[in-house]
Design goal:
The chain is α/β, with parallel strands linked by helices. Helix content is 23%, strand content 28%. The protein has helices at residues 33-39, 55-60, 79-85, 119-138, 173-182; strands at residues 4-8, 25-28, 43-47, 62-67, 75-76, 90-97, 107-114, 154-155, 192-195, 198-207, 212-219. The chain has a six-stranded mixed sheet with strand order 2-1-3-4-6-7. It has a three-stranded antiparallel sheet with strand order 9-10-11. Helix 3 runs antiparallel to helix 5 (173-182). It is elongated and about 55 Å long.
Length: 220
């Protein structure tokens, strides 16, 4: 049996991986060329992966990556946050073939994805759908790929200072809520404000008609 490799920096929910056949699927946090050569996988899938993939790997093995946008729109970094900032409430999860150019490869699968909830909730939902797609694609004898169509757009990966809320002019309460929730995920720079020598980070936001309720952390 040819192994199927799943490469991801982290598991957002162990339940998403719970029912994968361990004889068929192998999970790694890091990309290791020596290990890949030993296993000789049928397909390598990348979820939540932002690092460059070596040419030696994608030229010798079928590499399929997941991107949280309706490619070719929102190529590049932080697609979840950049789409929420543009007011999108839903998007696509696109599975595409890895090439030497970022997010440009032919796609083989697209699935609707909601952008509601916190960043963490979105990533768990994304991961669940990605695993479902992996199960479908791994059963196929031949995977058909299609050229990306439409005008591409590119966005850079967000950096920590862009989580500083003072840089933005929020016109509506919903804009504040969206900003806090989209950054509310483990290992992501939370939305924050500064007060004298203190930093106030916001999380677990819930919105009602005229207010936002949530939690915060104050630190020097």
């Amino acid at each position: 049996m040819n192994k199927i490799l799943i490469i991801s920096k982290k598991k957002w929910s162990k339940n998403n991986y719970k029912y994968l056949n361990k004889k068929k699927f192998t999970y790694y946090k890091n990309l290791n060329l020596k290990t890949i050569k030993k296993i000789k996988p049928k397909i390598i899938f990348f979820i939540h992966w932002s690092k460059k993939i070596e040419r030696k790997i994608f030229k010798n093995f079928l590499c399929i990556q997941f991107h949280c946008s309706d490619l070719p729109k929102f190529r590049g970094g932080s697609p979840v946050q950049n789409q929420i900032l543009k007011g999108l409430k839903k998007t696509k999860l696109t599975a595409f073939k890895v090439t030497n150019k970022l997010d440009t490869g032919d796609y083989c699968f697209k699935r609707n994805l909601s952008l509601n909830g916190s960043g963490s909730e979105i990533y768990k939902r994304l991961e669940k759908k990605a695993i479902h797609i992996i199960k479908i694609l791994s059963k196929k004898k031949y995977i058909k790929f299609y050229k990306q169509k439409g005008l591409p757009t590119y966005y850079k990966r967000r950096i920590e200072k862009e989580s500083y809320m003072r840089y933005y002019k929020f016109k509506k309460l919903e804009n504040v809520y969206n900003f806090i929730r989209m950054l509310d995920a483990q290992d992501y720079p939370k939305a924050f404000l500064k007060l004298n020598n203190f930093k106030i980070s916001f999380m677990k936001a819930k919105k009602s008609s005229n207010k936002i309720i949530g939690e915060y952390i104050i630190e020097k």
